[in-house]
Amino acid sequence: MRCWSKMMRTGVLLYAAASLPAIAQGGSGDTMAKIADDIVANRLAANPFLPLYTDIGGGRNDILNDISPAAIARNNAEVDALLARLDALDQKTLTDRAMVRDYAIAREMLEAERGLRVCHSELWTVSHMDGWPGNFPNLAERQPVATPKDRADALARWGGLPDFIAADIANLKQGIARGYVVPRSVAVRALAQVEGLIAETPEQSPFFAPAKASNDTAFKAAFTALVRDRITPAIRGYRDFLRDTYIPAARESLSVLDLPDGRACYNAMLRSYTTLDRPGEAVAALGERTVAANVADVRAMGKALYGTDDFSQIVARVKADPKERFTSKDEIVAYNREVVERARKAVAAIIDHVPQQPLEVRPMTDAMEAAGVSSNYTPAADPAKPALYMLQVGKVEDASRADMAITAVHEGYPGHHLQFAYAASQPNSKLSKIGFNSAYIEGWARYSERLSEEIGLLDTPQMKISRRAWPARGMVADPGLHIGKWSRERMVAYLTETGRFPPEVAKGMTDRIASLPGQLTAYDSGGLEIVALRDQAQKALGKRFDIKEFNAVVLGDGVVPLALLRKNVEAWIAGKK
């Protein structure tokens, strides 16, 4: 259910810049193109892993993020300077659509980051959802090792992991002293994840991946020593710190409002994820109205299928259907792969020029499952190499074909994989390729669930009921937990009544919402906006409405703020009329 947002937030928003170049000064001849280039340079310094996920080129493969207080201060100053340059730019010089797009992306990106400073997120990075223990193993697997320079870079980058961990621990100690700590339940999940990184031999460590990808014996020997003598001991030290120091100091509360300036932080998180200045109470109200409409649909469908309009009974009947069950984890993985392949062939009905980049469906490790990590998607910069759908298999007895199919189309086709691969195939700017907000990304994936039903991918009554049982509840549950300070018991009850999550998974979802304040509101904030725009276009154009053209307009510019998406669609409608 999550895509590379974890990587973007970790690299760009939670951690600050590495060695920043002397840019962002501007001048009388400043242009949007110059500002965009400097923002890209800033982002590459802040997140040296970006070239592993998008084809923007540049960057360095020999460093990790610099998360020191000095680097954070430098990055803040540079973001302020870039914003000042945007403020000084004469918008009359934005003479084409690409300039307008880059201006909107730049302003949203920088303003959202500046707003997040109130959170001091670098002081509470412990997370099973988007912390370094979940991200870095995947990055180690993607580390280039083809050339002697690549291999030297790999040794330099991962040789810096012990120092990175030490800096993270120093920040976390500052967080404890200042009252910035994560919920204890989140820290316990993170501890389980870290335990899974500690291997008895270097070859068993996930950080040994670069050595596995190379036939250079000297490099293998050097990397073996690095993992054995420095990386694994550093991870053990982090594990001990979590267990002995951090968890005893963590908070019982789940709400981010219990941190210093917590309400301002939650508002900033909402803005960052959704690009909307919509307060949490308004988010919840819209969610409640949408959930009520979905429940009414489920009741009508359940009445026709099962002869009852009781929501709980309908959901229970769907879950109990023998046709929905699996007999093994291998069968679950095979089913997901089959759905992805069937969807790849079917999406030609709703989009032209379907990208050919492959998608690998890979079950999560036991450590990731134990930590409660949700299914997620990670793009690949090279279109010849597969992107990755990490599948949370869960317990066989809890899995249903309906829920697995919904998640597969959300993460694969026509969801995230189609979304990212399609945008990567367009002649977009470097800035637009690194733009990020969850409302657009997850909004498209939520909308893709509806598309999948329309083109026959979600074709059983059980799938149609399940597709309506869960959406928009994140808009209610997220502010419910943080603003309303719902108890864990209330959260679990609210999540399990949809049938989408068994109690143990619902507990994990509760900690996910606690760990990522605001993020779960983004799915339907964006999805509802895309559906509203489509309804507007269909009403305005009638028979001239073309679903392929509409979807191409939504996807073509890559990740954009919702306000710009609306402008783009309305301009397309006007052009068609």
UniProtKB/TrEMBL annotation:
InterPro entries per the UniProt record, alphabetical: DUF885 (IPR010281)
UniProt keyword list: Signal
Keyword Signal appears in the UniProt entry: yes
Signal peptide region: 1-24
Keyword Ribonucleoprotein annotated: no
UniProt-recorded name of the protein: DUF885 domain-containing protein
